[in-house]
Specification:
The complex is a heterodimer of chains A (435) and B (245).
Chain A: E1 2-4, E2 11-13, E3 15-18, H1 22-31, E4 36-38, E5 52-55, E6 62-66, E7 71-75, H2 80-87, E8 92-94, H3 105-110, H4 118-121, E9 128-134, E10 140-144, H5 149-155, E11 164-174, E12 179-187, H6 190-199, E13 205-210, E14 222-229, E15 246-247, H7 259-272, E16 277-283, H8 284-288, E17 294-295, E18 306-314, H9 318-332, E19 339-344, E20 358-366, H10 371-384, E21 388-389, H11 399-405, H12 409-418, H13 428-433
Parallel strand pairs in A: 3-5, 4-5, 15-17
Antiparallel strand pairs in A: 1-2, 6-7, 7-11, 8-11, 9-10, 9-11, 12-14, 12-16, 13-14, 13-19, 18-20, 18-21, 19-20
Helix pairs in contact in A: 9-10
Chain B: E1 5-9, H1 14-25, E2 29-34, H2 37-51, E3 55-59, H3 68-73, E4 81-84, H4 92-97, H5 99-127, E5 131-135, H6 148-169, E6 175-179, E7 182-183, E8 198-199, H7 201-213, E9 218-220, H8 223-234, H9 237-240
Parallel strand pairs in B: 1-2, 1-4, 2-3, 4-5, 5-6, 6-9, 7-8
Classes of the chains: A alpha+beta (435), B alpha/beta (245).
The complex binds flavin-adenine dinucleotide and NADP nicotinamide-adenine-dinucleotide phosphate.
């Protein structure tokens, strides 16, 4: 079958074996040759792509919920959307959630995903208590921070390269409502944008949308969005109805999205927002998962697909590093429909986890002429400022650029080798990066 | 579905799992039964965790006929409705050569089904309440060269359900026959199924729950199947035997 990540680029022919149950999975793995786990395909590039993949969605049972601690144990194919639907009405929410709820628990662990609250809550792996996995020989392996801790640190952020996660236990957090009180701050340039983040570093959720085509004195102008759950007290009867999205058709013509229309969109979007700061109340879905309202929104990029480029720079790079990169993008004239800037807290000790204390920018580019050169230039700037690239979004980075960003890469490689994982679990991405 | 307990026979089938989830979401308590107790217990835990209902796994082997009376009398509380989902497709070529496999198919889809449903029917009849759902197949509407062992066992089961429906009508106990057409489940993994004629387990499950609520007699999940089978059953045998359908 044809398989791709969310960016619909690259598209490959692959054989998908559905993981109907854990025992079948164990048997199959030993006889299968090299393979990689495929969650819900929301990583953008080639992290979950290989000739043979194991589809994890069928393993979607919730096993246990411990009301006293918030510990949820479930199989790896459970979707975040199901967790929110099941537990938000009872007063519980994910401690860490990305910008889409259509990802699996396994994918969340494997990419050690982060949300708008990284500066306060860390990564998804930091909320995990323990994991059950299938190793290279089909054997069951348990790991946690205390038990097989190296494997645990390699698995959170390990992009499926340390085995198949079939069960995970992680903590949910109590919330008082399904409503977020949101403040939007309109900033005039990058300095103001950074200042807004720093000033509100105590606010649980923050993210900025950057007008990446603005130049000169307006470079880095943004809408910084801050949020926190409304209400004070724990609540065990919350009114929450998930919103259903609209579907973008398969044949959506990609030419509608071009650099001119992106520029117009960016200008209007920025202009529409009130000057200074404004407040409103929004639902959980609207705040955390705005893009999910357009199902298959990746289709607006047409057949050629899109590439998301996400990098992070350490705080020491300051405004200067981000400024130089934004200038490079603005000058290229290749627009990004969505450019998202975020403040991050300290890094954890997971070998390949992406976040570090600093600022990250994520850009969506339609696959087009001149884009590869632009991204190569951005790679060099990222390295110049000691930053790194997010594997979950990547489909193209070179081994050299990647390695320089991840100082624990050799420990990761050594562990893979010593457990024979490098001969069993491989993706197009891991082959490209020699992981 | 509150204060209702439903027994699912063959609860590890993908269609059964999807059905159990809708029923649990609507508040029904459940008995989940089939051979692989480990898997049943996981799904029971899932239903408890997600929907807060009382769901329990219990071992049941359709082919172990002698065990059925103890199995059924051991259920406490007794079910108010039964969904029979177990089934065995087998492989036609193998079934032709190896009678043991043919027998497994027949004993699962027909004999085993009759054996347990007679116990259920007697109980429901006595209590004057309940409903029965049997998942049969369009393959039972007419025997075809490439699956007649499975098809004939399902034909027997369809005829059985039809008779049972008549018998229990007087007691007000509805019997629903489900003919799902192609469904993408672990039974059909790797088989090239035509997209337009193939349902997913959730779609079948929704049709089943709607069928229960509306006290339907026979449902084809995708309406097109009713048309197709209407045509196929009307082709004269003279012609039919020469076709490769
Ligand atoms: C609209 C959108 C917004 C996003 N926002 C964010 C964000 O805010 N923050 C963020 O961090 N990410 C974000 N992402 C990226 C996304 O969260 C990650 O790519 C996530 O890993 C996707 O999960 P998945 O289940 O779809 O996994 P897939 O994309 O299918 O796989 C991703 C990786 O996980 C591995 N994997 C999957 N399941 C298992 C398993 N059971 N065992 C072992 N390995 C496994 C795969 O091998 C692969 O390497 C976003 C993506 C989209 C489309
Ligand atoms: N899939 C299709 O295209 C399709 C089309 C038409 C009709 N159907 C019918 O729909 C029903 C469900 O199909 P499905 O595709 O969901 O099936 P499935 O996923 O293959 O599951 C069938 C289940 O039946 C159980 N089973 C088999 N033999 C049994 C026995 N002797 N005793 C107890 N349980 C037994 C098995 O559970 P354990 O291993 O735990 O025992 C198995 O999980 C079947 O009756 C099938 O014939 C399916």
């Amino acid at each position: 079958m044809e398989l791709s990540g969310w960016g619909r680029h690259p598209v490959i022919q692959a054989e998908m074996t559905p993981a109907h149950n854990h025992r079948v999975l164990q048997e199959k793995i030993s006889g299968m040759g090299t393979l990689i786990a495929y969650g819900y395909g929301r990583s953008y590039g080639d992290s979950a792509l290989a000739k043979q993949v194991v589809g994890m969605r069928p393993l979607d049972r919730m096993i246990e919920f411990e009301e006293s601690t918030g510990l949820l144990t479930c199989e790896a194919g459970v979707l975040f959307a199901d967790i929110v639907k099941t537990f938000l009405p009872r007063g519980w929410f994910l401690k860490v959630t990305p910008g889409t709820k259509y990802i699996t628990v396994g994918g969340a662990v494997a990419a050690d995903i982060h949300g708008k609250n990284h500066h306060i809550a860390g990564c998804f792996g930091d909320t995990v208590s323990h994991l059950k996995m299938i190793g290279a020989g089909g054997e069951t392996v348990h790991c946690s921070r205390d038990h097989n801790s190296e494997l645990f640190r390699a698995t959170c952020g390990g992009m499926g390269l340390t085995g198949i996660i079939f069960e995970a236990a992680f903590y949910l957090t109590k919330v008082p409502s399904a409503t977020i009180s949101m403040t939007t701050i309109k900033t005039r340039d990058l300095v103001e944008t950074f200042e807004a983040f720093e000033k509100h570093a105590d606010t649980p959720y923050s993210v900025a949308w950057v007008d990446c085509l603005a130049k000169g004195g307006s470079l880095g102008r943004s809408l910084v969005m801050l949020g926190e759950f409304e209400g004070e007290d724990a609540n065990t009867d919350i009114d929450y109805r998930p919103s259903n999205g609209t579907t973008i058709p398969k044949w959506f013509p990609g030419f509608l999205l071009n650099n001119a229309s992106i520029s117009v969109f960016n200008k209007l979007y920025y202009a529409k927002a009130q000057n200074g700061s404004s407040k409103k109340r929004v639902g959980v879905d609207a705040f955390f998962y705005p893009l999910d309202r357009l199902l298959h929104w990746n289709r607006i990029y047409g057949k050629s697909g899109l590439i998301q480029y996400q990098f992070i720079l350490p705080k020491s790079a300051g405004v200067k590093g981000m400024e130089e990169i934004l200038q490079e993008i603005a000058q290229s004239g290749i627009g990004s429909f969505l450019a998202v800037l975020k403040l991050y807290g300290p890094a954890n000790d997971h070998y390949l986890s992406f976040p570090m204390e600093g600022y990250s920018l994520a850009l969506d580019f339609k696959v087009q002429h001149r884009l590869p050169e632009l991204l190569d230039r951005l790679d060099r700037l990222v390295l110049k400022y000691s930053g790194r690239i997010y594997l979950a979004k990547d489909a193209r980075v070179s081994r050299e650029v990647f390695e320089q960003g991840y100082p624990q890469i050799e420990a990761f490689r050594a562990l893979r080798k010593s457990l024979g994982l490098d001969r069993k679990f491989r993706s197009m991405q891991s082959d490209r990066l020699g992981l | 579905m509150h204060n209702t307990r439903i027994l699912i026979l063959g609860a590890n089938s993908d269609i059964a799992v999807a059905t159990a989830r809708i029923l649990a979401q609507e508040g029904a308590d459940l008995w989940l039964s089939s051979r692989n107790l480990e898997e049943l217990e996981k799904e029971a835990a899932n239903l408890r965790t997600r929907y807060g209902v009382d769901a329990r796994g219990v071992r049941f082997d359709a082919r172990d006929f002698d065990s059925h009376p103890d199995f059924y009398s051991g259920l406490d509380p007794k079910p108010d409705g039964v969904v029979l989902a177990f089934g065995l497709l087998g492989d036609q070529q193998t079934s032709q050569k190896d009678f043991d496999q043919a027998r497994a198919v027949m004993e699962t889809n027909y004999t085993g089904a009759v054996c347990i449903l007679e116990l259920v029917a007697a109980d429901f009849d006595r209590r004057g309440k309940g409903f029965i759902v049997g998942i049969s197949s369009v393959a039972g509407d007419r025997g075809r060269a490439d699956n007649y062992i499975y098809g004939s066992s399902k034909a027997g089961f369809t005829a059985y359900l039809s008779g049972l429906r008549q018998r229990l009508h007087a007691s007000g106990i509805p019997v629903l026959t489900v003919k799902p057409g192609f469904v993408a489940t672990k039974m059909t993994v790797g088989k090239p199924l035509p997209k337009r004629l193939t349902a997913d387990p959730e779609m079948v499950a929704r049709a089943i729950v709607k069928g229960i609520r509306k006290r339907k007699n026979v449902i084809y999940v995708k309406p097109l199947w009713r048309v197709i089978m209407g045509v196929i059953t009307h082709i004269p045998e003279k012609v039919f035997k020469k076709l490769s359908l």
